[in-house]
Fold this sequence. Notes:
The chain is of the alpha+beta class. 63% of the residues lie in helices and 12% in strands. The longest helix has 25 residues, at 2-26.
Amino acid sequence: MKKQISEFLKIGFGVLLASIGLKVFLLPNGFLDGGVTGIAILLSELFDLNISIILVAVSIPFLFMSWFTLSRRITIKSIIAILALAVMMHFENFTSITDDKLLVAIFGGLFLGAGIGLTIKNGAVLDGSEVLGIFANKNFGFSIGKVVLGFNLILFSITAVTLSLEAAMYSTLTFLVTAKIIDLTIEGFEDYVGLMVVSDKTELIEKELIEVIKTGTTLYSGSKGFGKRGARKESDIIHTVINRIDIRRTYNMIDRIDANAFIIEFDVNTIKGGIRKEIFQKENMKVLLSEMK
C-alpha cells in the first residue's frame, strides 16, 4: 500500500513538472514536443481548441493500444495521469517567464522530459508514442525506436508546413532535450559500464578491483581459446560493473598488472542487487579478501 501511494505521489509530481513545461514555456511560445503531446499542441494551435480536451481526445487511441499491449494496471494509471495533466493545465495560471526561443526549447524540454520520465519510472504513460512503438513492434516486428522517430518526423514535417520551419526546428530541439531528460530520469545520472577481463593474472586484478576500485566481481570459467599469445588453456574470466568515472583508473590498474590483458567494455543500463558500498567497510573487506586466498 505504501509503495502504491509513493508511486502515485511521484506520478503527481511528474504531472506537475510536465504541466509547467507546457504552460510556462512551450504553449505561450507556440513550440511543440514530439509524440501525442506534440499532436495536441499542433491541433490546439491550428484550430484554437482547448489543449486539455485535445490532449485527452488524442490520447484515447494510444490508451486503447496500451490496454492490449501493456498491462491493465499501467493503462489505468496512465489514464489517471493524463486526466490529471489535462485538469492541471486547464486550471493552472502560470505565466510565461521568457520569450527567448532557445531558453524555451531547452527548459520546456527539461521540465516536460523530467515529468514524463518520472511518470514512466512509476508505471504510467503521459505520452502515447512509446505505446505505439511497442504495439508496432509486437504486431509487425518494427523497431520501437524507428517507429517513434518516424512518428515524430511526420509530426515535425507537418509543423514546418502548417506553422513555420522555424517552429519545427525549435520543436525538434525541444524533443531532443525531452528525450535525453527522460532517459536521465529513468536510468539515473550515474553511468555504468561493464568489463570482461581475460588475463593470466586474474587473482591480482580481482583483488585490485575489490580493494582499490571498490567494486564487486563475478568469475566465469573460461575454456580453451586462441589469442595473440597463442593457444590458451582454461582460465577464469572477470566480469565486473563500474561507474564510468572510474574507467580510466581501472584500465591503468589492469595495464599495470597485465599489459596484455584482453578487455571487453560494454554499456550497462540497469543494476539491481549485488555488492553495495557498505560491504567495503574495513571489517567486511577483511572477510572478503580472506575468502579469496
